[in-house]
Design a protein that fits this description.
Shape: flat
Distance between the termini: 52 Å
Structural class: mainly alpha
Helix content: over 70%
Largest sheet: 2 strands, antiparallel
Radius of gyration: 24 Å
Order of helices and strands: HHHHEEH
Strand content: under 5%
Strand order of the largest sheet: 1-2
């Protein structure tokens, strides 16, 4: 039995389980689910959530397997991927260096004033976002100019 056939069977079984649990949830009704949730009972929704967790985990594992397999079988894509990861890491490092965290006490985080480290990380994330947005806009602009000039 090949991998494709096994994956089709697993997908069919998970889809069938999802449909069965969906019918069970719908048959219970909104009021029963809300009153059970108010009492802290989530037994009605738990089976559906477990199917979701399994599907999500399988998706992540399969994506990682196939991406890594492709990267190591195609060395030219490995080089370009490593360049992209390095550039992204460089943007994150530059963003961290440029942010200060000086506005630490001005914001609340979970009801408590943000620490300097939290403010520093938020600032770094914002700076990284700005750098990446500017880079994306520049890439689109240059691509448009190249298409026009042809």
């Amino acid at each position: 039995m090949n991998l494709h056939r096994i994956l089709k069977i697993v997908a069919a079984l998970l889809g069938l389980a999802g449909i069965i649990f969906l019918v069970m949830v719908i048959s219970k009704g909104d009021t029963a689910i809300q009153s059970a949730a108010a009492d802290g009972d989530s037994a009605i929704l738990d089976p559906m959530l477990y199917v979701t967790y399994v599907i999500f985990a399988l998706t992540i594992v399969l994506v990682l397997i196939f991406v890594l397999q492709n990267l190591f079988t195609n060395t030219s894509s490995l080089k370009s991927t490593l360049i992209g990861v390095g550039a992204f890491a460089g943007v994150l490092i530059i963003s961290y260096i440029l942010s200060s965290g000086s506005d630490a006490g001005n914001y609340l985080y979970n009801g408590a004033p943000a620490t300097e480290g939290e403010a520093h990380m938020v600032g770094a994330g914002l700076v990284a976002f700005y750098i990446l947005i500017i880079g994306a806009a520049a890439a689109m602009l240059l691509s448009g100019i190249k298409k026009i000039s042809k």
